Amino acid sequence: MKKTVLVSGGAGYIGSHTAVELIAAGYDVVIADNLSNSDCSGVEGVRRITGVEVPFVEVDCCDKEAFARVFAQYDFDSVIHFAAFKAVGESVADPMKYYRNNLLSFMNVVDLMREYDRHNIVFSSSATVYGEPDELPVTELSPRKPATSAYGNTKQMCEDILRDSVAAYDSLRAIALRYFNPIGAHPSALIGELPRGVPQNLVPYITQTAAGVRECLSVFGDDYPTEDGSCLRDYIDIVDLARAHVAAIDRMTSGDATERYEIFNVGTGRAVSVFELVHTFERVNNLALNHKVAPRRAGDVMAVWADTRRANEVLGWRAERPLDETLRSAWEWEKYVRKL
Length: 340
Ligand code: UFG
Fold this sequence. Notes:
Helices cover 41% and strands 16% of the residues. It has helices spanning 13-24, 40-50, 64-73, 88-93, 95-115, 150-168, 202-210, 238-253, 274-285, 309-315, 323-338; strands spanning 4-8, 28-33, 56-58, 78-81, 120-126, 173-179, 181-183, 217-220, 232-233, 235-237, 261-266, 272-273, 291-294. It has 11 helices and 13 strands. By secondary structure, it is of the alpha/beta class. Strand 5, helix 6 and strand 6 form a beta-alpha-beta unit. Uridine-5'-diphosphate-4-deoxy-4-fluoro-alpha-D-galactose is lined by residues 86, 88, 126-128, 152, 181, 200-202, 205, 217-220, 231, 233, 274, 297, 300, 304.
């Protein structure tokens, strides 16, 4: 029996890859997106890769009446909620924009799921909830640290809203996935990350520098107490990350979930430094990247990577795509976008 999943924010970077993997796994998908940080190319890419004319509704999840019409029209039992703003720096400069959008859209999803008797939700959380960890790698039981940005705060608040809602409403089941650093693109190079303006994240900055759109990559800090002095992160391939969502939906729809609210880290379990990432990108794509050392970036944690045992053992998911391949895909995507 086919099951349908509503993917809010499904035109975006993680949402579009997840839609592809859901369809590959036999699910029907409905995409809802207001295109505030994406365009129709994400949906077109999903359709081209899968050969499925995926239904797309242009709607703002903050507009409850309009969003309710999606619930009335489509018969899905599961929702993956990606629709949110995600620029850390912007959220510090304009916190109300983030609280209004990210919290309201999330509360509308939870309300509508109850009103329309829909049961399973996957929420996009983030490793940002761990802040600067006391112990590494971080497990799902590691303490959450006070958020240093409104963006991070909305992730913590939505996790709390989910926990309280599941506790109060018997009809709901939920999984929060705490993403580490998603990178790369689909092997077809038909979908990938499309940042607007100057990229804030490392890999889009690298690919745009390689393409000549940016002059030089700044490596923010080479004086951290790490082996090569740069920060350590857990870079998770976007297709692997998308498949973690499929595993989460499988778990809830098959009744395997032992708790009604579960949390999983989604990472590789491997720490990679900024320099290592840059040099790997250069090696696998056979090019030299213009880069220089710059001062530390305010708000950066020195190191964070995932303990993935729970995701491996309980969710039955693990990261598979090697970093070399992921960084090749990132460059293929940039070349496709730039018509190089
Ligand atoms: N970096 C550079 N130069 C750049 C951009 C980034 O050296 O031009 C470095 C950063 O200092 C950091 C690493 O590359 O050491 C990764 O930075 P990103 O901006 O790509 O990612 P972050 O780890 O800062 O942020 C990511 C997500 C956020 C999330 C956070 C949680 O983008 O959404 O992880 O840890 F909140």
